[in-house]
Specification:
Layout (H helix, E strand, L loop, with lengths): L1 H33 L5 H18 L1 H8 L1 H19 L9 H27 L2 H25 L9 H21 L1 H12 L14 H5 L2 H31 L4 H25 L5 H20 L4 H15 L2 H13 L4 H29 L7 H29 L2 H4 L4
Helix pairs in contact: 1-4, 1-5, 1-6, 1-7, 1-10, 1-11, 2-5, 2-15, 3-4, 3-5, 4-5, 4-7, 5-14, 5-15, 6-7, 6-11, 6-14, 10-11, 10-14, 10-15, 10-16, 11-13, 12-13, 12-14, 12-16
Amino acid sequence: MSILLLLIIYIAFISLGLPDSMLGSSFPAIAENLNIASDMAGYIALTVSACTIVSSLFSAKLIEKFSTKWVVFVSVLLTATGLVLFSQVKEGYTWLFFLIAVPMGLGAGAIDAALNNYVALHYKAIHMNWLHCSWGIGASIGPMILGSFIDSDKASAGWDKGVLIISIIQFSIALIILISLPLWNKMASKENNKPKEEIKQVKKFSYKDLFKNPVFYLSMIGFFGYCALETTTGLWTGSFFSYGKGLSTSKAATLTSVFYLGITVGRFICGPISLKFKEKNMMRIGESILLVGTVLTMIPFNIWFSIIGLSLIGIGCAPIYPAIIRSTPYRFSKEASQKAMGIEMAIAYCGNLSIPPLFGLIAKSLGNNFSILPYMILALLLLMIIVHEIINAILQKRDVALTEEEKKEYF
């Protein structure tokens, strides 16, 4: 039963990935077809992220009131509806993109926080990696679908049909989740029927307890840095290939999948590896690969350096996000994990909200010079490495001082 539910959760995460890559991969075509500025994608993404922050902050209360299953179903339904509306925007009405960004952002934040914490508490590390591998499948499929519909010879027309197909897939996933709702009830019943000695009494954990912990602030900075890196790369890879490398909008849209395929393949491979390595070492492996990929992308002589480099950046990203999520109960205790997760998601989307549009503004001011993307990636990577190593040093000292009873709250 738990395996079947896990498969449903994987499918739900595919739905989370589909719209995440849609905007960045399609926007060079949208900008050309609707005659709008190349950096508007950053402002639309900012709106999505702002709404995602709101839903992430309220995710713990929503889950407590309505349960994880209903939060997941409604979230997928919201993003599917947003995608249908997105596909219908015409020239002269591009302000509608910002209104449509609201349901898409609200849906993304709630499902992210809900499922990440659920898997972190109920399943092994391998499943956290494969969960985000599922997200990568969705994020990789999106650009491929869009690229197949965009016609570069006809003012990049066809992007709307690609978005509509993605919305149909999203509605299908929402239907699967609706049909699977009884599974969640059976799993909850199974948990409630455990012998009393197996059920750990959960103490009330306030936000004040989190705010007193210095690791909390460092974790937020690290999460901010990672999500800003991933989102900026995903959003502007299409523009990097189109404006920076001179490729057609259809090829640029398709090549966006290179980054997301790297994440997907990397997370599939990281699944069994995560059973042998601690989360902090998984992060270090990812950061090292990221560094190599970033350097390769900086080499200007051949397009293949950029393609291979962005693939490696995706592979490097693969273990980091799942490792940060899996580290949350360890960093703040199992009781505090849902509250911490909601705030983590909100701070993460602050990275999504601020850095991608900032980069778009900088690139546009330099004459649509999106070839500077690797330098932004490098800056965020260095921030992330420094913060994570400080956290490791603090937690190592804390673990030495813990009693055996206290360790049960974290391990």
